[in-house]
Amino acid sequence: MEQKNKFNLPYVVIFIPAYNEEGAIGKTIDSVKEELIKEKYKEFYFETIVIDDGSKDKTGEIAKGRGVKVITHPVNMGLGAATRTGMRTAYEMGADIAVKVDGDAQFVMEGIDKMISPILENKADVIFGSRFLGSILYKMPFHRAWGNTFFAWLTSRLTGMKVTDSSTGLISFCRRYLACFSILMDYNETQQLIIDAWGKNMRVIEIPISSNQRKSGKSFVNWKYPFRVLPAMLRSYIHAKPLKSFFCIGSCIFIIGVAIGFLWFFGISRFFGGLSSAILIITGIQIILFGFLADIVIKKR
To answer: Nearest to residue 170, comparing CAs of 190, 140, 144?
Structure first.
């Protein structure tokens, strides 16, 4: 911070979430350092930190041996939680920009400047690196490629933005977003951040990046992934757009109630009575009103 204040340089904090990555964390830190000593980064002041998410191996020790600051979770909490800690820490450190880099040494570090420049040029607030716009330097397993395609499509549908990589581990954030972001669930982070940034009217872009094959460690993506990610996406969407979410739900219930009342009133159907119709109509109205209240509360935060 002293150097940043002395020379008035843009202050960039690179944070690396890691869990049981003793085979890759050293290489990840080294590749970041090797990139940052290049001439094109002389106008920046960088600090690198590692978020050790309760690793049971030597991840934290190796990171400390590389001379970086390590923040340790007492237990494994999840990539979403580690990312949350990294973003909060970067903000508290006074970062103008924070860059998240996964600790598995998959991402090619050349081009970190492309994750920073659009923010400094006031062209973007949050930048997601996309492997599918860039290059994947290995044969991605079919189930992972298909899953990423599906969640990218779903995220695009929810936000109206074109999303090509829904599980990227290379993301950068402006300070304004660091001050107000929300990661509601601990398991995953990328889809939540896309939806949250969109809901907060941040300028979100994707840029091409390159990715290598994981050589060590174990990915957290498994058969449980969809069952944890879908609720996280739904919760993030409702949190981002409560009025729209509750209005749609409430309107559907209200319309069903009106339809049942119509059928009952004209004797077309006696299966449901007027009481059922009234309950549904009132419930629908209450849900819509709840959406208005939730929207007011969230916007005041």
So the answer is: 190
**Pure H helices in 37-132:** 59-65, 79-92, 117-120
What's the full length of the chain, in residues? Answer: 301
| Amino acid at position 275, single letter | L
Which CATH code, of 4.10.640.10, 1.10.3470.10, 3.40.50.1220, 3.90.550.10, is assigned to 2-240?
3.90.550.10
Residue type, 208: P
Query: In a 10 Å sphere around its CB, with 0-12 CB exposed, 13-18 middle and 19+ buried, how is residue 86 labelled?
Result: buried
**DSSP 3-state of 215:** coil
CA distances to 69, 120, 175, 214 from 125, in Å: 26, 9, 8, 29
pTM of the model: 0.84
Cβ contacts of 55 within 8 Å, gap of 6 or more: 18, 19, 20, 21, 22, 76
Distance CA 164, CA 131 (A): 8
β-strand pairing of 69-72 with 170-174: unpaired
Residue 260 confidence (pLDDT): 86
2 pLDDT band, cuts 50/70/90, is very low
